[in-house]
Amino acid sequence: MGGQLDPAVAAVRVAVRKALQDVRPGGRVLVACSGGADSLALAAAAAFVAPRRGLTAGAVVVDHGLQAGSAERSEQVGATLRALGLAPVEVVAVAVGRAGGPEAAARDARYAALAAAAAAYEAEAVLLGHTLDDQAETVLLRLARGSGARSLAGMAARGGPAGPGGLWRRPLLGVPRATTRAACAALGLEPWEDPHNADPAYARVRVRRDALPALEQALGPGVAEALARTARLLRDDADALDAWAERELPALTGTDGSLDVDALAQLPAGVRRRCLRSAALAAGCPGTDLFAVHVDALDALVVDWHGQGPVQLPGRVSARRRCGRLDLEAGQGKS
């Protein structure tokens, strides 16, 4: 190629450079790498970009232990990452539970391991290899479930604890999966293909193999890019509405924690519902179990009041309207 940088390699490096531009010189970042094309291209880019910015880049390989030979394969991925110049490289075996289903349980175990490694190595950021295609799949899955704007906003480019930019960073949300594969090919890296990524038992695999190609055929090319763009726009809107609700909530809340029903009713529905959700969480509702149907029931106590009884919420929280106030009490609802 006459010394010319491969465009796919360049695209991934540019994305990583942007994601790390606020990390202080001398800081450490970690790459979460499974050995697949996305995270492998990400790791190679971090190994190139980080030292040029005065940063140290390491990696974490999480062995979920869900397939035969996973320990040996994880060690092979670790060796590849060390050969790229990443240090430290830690291979972590985790125990995957059952809560929330196999995908959710594996994700919870993985993120717990990554957070522990970040704390142990005092990393300022953990880079995750989610691509534009992953974002599109996420939006389509949530759209099919009737999710609201926050869920349809997809995965955040940054999030989680630690540092002003958040611990979790997804540099490749604007980079197509085809680009990461091309980058690996240009660099002579051989990704590992996880058989789970071809198993139609998983909804995400069906979206990837069937739904998105069908949409592309029916509507023309660019569906994945459009879905990812929708996520970005909705995230901006959801952030603005969340900030509005956060400003309103203190004035609505009495010293006993109850909410002013009349003041709530004057708010736009999107802001009011966010205030109600925040109040439910503050009263003890677990966020993982608090769904739109629960917020709908709370909203009915405000804007569709006809003397109905209390609303039972997850986490043994009960909501009742009385004397112009909405009371949310812990220990009163069903578990």
Q: What spatial form do the alpha-carbon principal axes imply? A: elongated
CATH class of the largest domain: Alpha Beta
The number of distinct helices, counting runs of at least 4 residues, comes to 12
CATH topology name of the largest domain: Rossmann fold
DSSP E strands, number: 10
Task: Note the main sheet.
Answer: 6 strands, mixed
- Kindly state the percentage of residues in helix: 40-55%
| CATH homologous superfamily descriptor of the largest domain | HUPs
Structural class: alpha/beta
Second CATH tier, the architecture of the largest domain: 3-Layer(aba) Sandwich
Rg computed from alpha carbons, rounded to a whole number of angstroms:
23 Å
Task: Summarize the structure in words.
The model has no long low-confidence stretch (mean pLDDT 91). Helix 1 crosses helix 2, helix 1 crosses helix 7 and helix 11 crosses helix 12. The chain starts with 6 loop residues before the first helix and ends in a 5-residue tail after the last strand. Strand 2, helix 3 and strand 3 form a beta-alpha-beta unit. It is an alpha/beta fold and 335 residues long. The chain is elongated and about 75 Å long. The protein has 2 domains: 213 residues, Rossmann fold (3-Layer(aba) Sandwich), CATH 3.40.50; 78 residues, 2-Layer Sandwich (Uridine Diphospho-n-acetylenolpyruvylglucosamine Reductase, domain 3), CATH 3.30.465. The relative contact order is 0.10. The protein has 12 helices and 10 strands. The protein has a 6-stranded mixed β-sheet, sandwiched between helices. It has a 4-stranded antiparallel β-sheet with strand order 7-10-9-8.
